[in-house]
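Run log, item B.
One chain of 611 residues. Sequence copied directly from the ordering sheet:
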Amino acid sequence: MTKVRTFRWVCLFVIFLALITISETGATGNIYVFPGESIQAAVNEASSGDTIFVKPGEYNESIQVNQNNLTIVSESKSPDNTLISSGNRESVLEITASNITISGLSITGSQCGIYLNGAQNCVINGNNISKNEIGICLYKSDNNTLSDNNVYSNIDCGIKSLTSTGNLICNNYFNNTNNARENKLNTWTCTTGNYWSDYTGTDKDEDGTGDTEYVINQQTNSVDYRPLMDFIPKSPVLPEAIFTSNVTVGYAPLTIEFTDFSENASSLSWSFGDLNTSNSSAPFHTFLNEGTYKVTLNVTNDNGSDSKYVNINVLKTQDSSVPVLPEAKFSANVTSGYVPLTVQFIDFSENAESLSWSLGDGQTSSCAAPRHTFCCPGNYTVYLEAKNNNGTSSTCTVITVLNPSFTMLPEAKFSASIMKGPSPLTVEFVDLSENATEWEWDFGDGNRSVKKSPSYTYTTPGNYTVSLKVGNEYGNDSKEAVNLIQVEDANITDKGIIVYSADLNAAANTGYTEDSSSKDGEEGKGIAGILSKANLKSAGNFATLVADISSPAELKSSIEHEVLRDIGNVKAFAEGAVNKDGIRNLLWILLSLELLGIFVIISVLKRGKKR
């Protein structure tokens, strides 16, 4: 008897502990607030993990959130129709707890829109915060995330951070009297920065972000390294309910397998139409009685919900003497497209106990809804075979996989703002390609870029071959321009009459060709190179400038012919010279002839002008 009593007390104690655990843990739930009701009352009622859905409408109250792990969100996910104002009281939302999410609300008309006071790990996302003294204020609040908020028309400051650090603030729109103030280091850039109405930088490469950073506080090194030139708020990702059933009609008792293929869903629930439910992603359910049942799948995530249904027709139990044969049926979301083509197949066979797919490219499957990617162009016959103990049924469809059309392939084209000049030479390359989604530039000196239209500076003289490779999902193309960029040495002057006023010994050891690009050891070296056609043209230009007239075409042609003939003779003589004294004397002779020729040209041109 004593043992029985002891056992009873032990059982009661275990049950008591279990009840305490259940009461402390509780289950997360949803609380809905309608216009005319109090959001503060919902917060006071909520338990950790609950979500408070605020119905569209206008609310006038100041809300204190001191319960950890709560979500307050507009049911519509749109701040345009869910407005909260505190009537110029201290703040609309004061958060003194951790792990709080505030999303999809319009917050206006207060001393402070959202006030994080000693809050940790909170998420402030997708809100409109306007017409307050301070839009968002953080005080002794760390490691919070503020993103995709419109913070505008706040009188004193858009966002103010005091004694708060480690907060991530990115992809927000700021347009206020003063946009941001802080006295501790926070992070203002993730993959993107923020839009700042007072940012004065430029975006030369047109990638959507400024070329220079936006400084919030120089002393704390708080900088937005990728300020946005335009603000594009992210749209909420809504769930989409998708499911299949292996049959939709059959004889009672009818057992059906349902399979969930929903997208962007964080939770799901099934209603089978006969008062039974399930939260499994692939439930089996048996319908015992004849009738039509509406099977509904409901899916949700933080941004909303979606549902789909199918009618299941359960027939009166068939005479067991008549065999039930399977009937193969299926559908495909697409039957043609460009390579690579991904197709979702869904089985709708009736009375099937097993399935077998042949996908036409050597691959097989036995699941109810295979997803397959065809990687090569061609026509593929996809078969489905359905079996049960009484027989087999099969059906097929043809999937056509196409090569991308010529107009869908990329074509590389580009231009350069300048192709020749002294170092350092900055060149703006402009992409003119068609159908390109990816770019890779090779500037010819070992450096590359993946920007669409980059700017690049060459610092070393030389000729550079530039190439551009572009691509998209269908292929790639490239274009190469050999020696497109010619970078000259800024310390060498090789234009016009200046050549002739240089030191003779230096001139004798310097090569000049018609394009002024030859060096020692190349054609045009030495004395003969000085008297090239290019330098003759420079002398003619100098003579025209001095005489202040334009020389007649026939006179210029005659002079050029005679001088070039003499140059040829001198060049032949120079190539046969064997001693330095002869070369030096020849230099003096040539210089004298050149100067004499210039003065003759000037005199002739002046007499022609007087006539």
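Observations after the first pass:
- The chain has five domains: 28-224, 243-315, 330-402, 407-488, 496-610.
- Residues 28-224 form a domain with the Pectate Lyase C-like fold (CATH 2.160.20.10).
Flagged for discussion on Thursday.
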